[in-house]
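Wed. Picked up where I left off yesterday with Cytochrome P450. The coffee machine is broken again, so keeping this brief.
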Amino acid sequence: MTSHIDPVSREFDVDHHSEEFWESAPETFAMLREKCPVAHSSQHGGFWMLTTYDTVAEAARDDDRFSSYRDLDGSRPGYDGVSLPPSRRPTRTGMIELDPPEFTKYRRLLNASFSPQAVERLRPRILEITTAVLDVVIERGECELVKDVAGPITAAVTMDQLGIPADRGMRYSNTMHDLLSISPTSPGQAAAVAQVEELLGELREQVRLRRAAPQDDWISLLVTAEVDGAPIPDDIVVENAFLLVLGGVDTTSQLILHSLRYLHQNPELREDLREHPERLRNACEEFLRYFSPIQWFARTVTRDCEVDGVDLKAGERVLLCWGSGNHDAAHFEDPEVVNIDRSPNRHMAFGVGVHRCIGSHLARAQFEIVVGEILRRMPDYSVDEGETRPYPDRQVNGLVRMPASFTPGSREALVATEAGSA
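Structure written out below (tokens, as returned):
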């Protein structure tokens, strides 16, 4: 695949949604960064791939030339099929698919809830949830880290803040996981999308309930807010709640999972982090860079312009390859080496520009707590590599399953409860 690029036309007929592409994706991206940082594919209606750190950052910071707007009714250019196949996008995902100033009106409503100070207040609750989830599996000596540990924890934290009953958390987590873990051409894709439609119906019901009785949660914050002097319509609240589900459930859990797998493969680093948990913060940044849970987002060119000497036309679509930019040797020394002491580490795993991920601080906190607790309570965990499988389509760089075994331990929440009542 890496040899099929025309250096003159820059044509590179690649389907980035295919499993074939991902069999050699690191090598392919490296070749593109070196030989053709702005390449064109005729797949999915045609699009440009930006693969170097500088080309991706240039487009991400320029909302005037590169629009994030996703068209729903066919009245404006959109980019369905470039970020994700159209079949997987039953609704717009909130403010992330809007441009300033409209984007900014919704973003600023939620900024305080995701600030470093707000996340710091959540740390005890994240630890409580992590302890409870690990208690369920700790005595067994084995678990499936995707659906038994990482998924339940990130789902519970997200549902907690959305104000959705905890017993619904895994339904949201499993639905999003199933959608991403099934090939776009699989017969099961339609059923997975139907499950997402059901969840959207549940979110609409949650919005209706908050209209009647607001609570202290993210949905209520949107329901009770005004934009341009008017309440936010229900469908816009649902879109943004759906965005918070997407960002909070699967991407954070996949960061945790890839990191745990890497530490299994590198026991010396695992032991180092177990003995020095204060180093988890730096490790988180390097794992974010190296694994890039979100590999790309798309934009639409708003007017004729140039990037890296290549002419782009209004209406054309571009793919901003965050994951490729994070492996650009022009910005990261030895980019294929994991170095948790890397400094500076200005990765773009959370995006660049005004659309930079609002949940970045919350994701970091969950990583530090969850990975730290697993290293403390399951220090000898061993991943079954033969049963570990990646997503077939990796806009979300995820794992379908990752079984592990470990020396059984003791529950801790029960011990704490009994000690408190003694």
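Quick read: Confidence is low (pLDDT under 50) at residues 415-422.
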